[in-house]
Design a protein that fits this description.
The protein has 78 residues and is mainly alpha-helical. Helices cover 63% and strands 0% of the residues. It has four helices and no strands. α1 crosses α2 and α3 packs antiparallel against α4.
Length: 78
Amino acid sequence: MIEHSLVRATNIPYIVKILCSYYGIDEDEALKRFYESATGADYADDETGLYSQGALHIAGLFIIEQDGDIDFSRLQSQ
């Protein structure tokens, strides 16, 4: 069985790439914002099961948390 931490570590670069593109920010800022968010905390918590979700889904949860909605036109370039 693959460790949850390995799954998270594999997904993080993809989540960060989506957030960088969506918000027009650099990787350090995207990572900082993500890990300071409730979504980031839930992602780090094995009990939530978020580690098993795809990067786009997790990034979407973050965007909704931050903005209240997703501007899908900003995701079209992904």
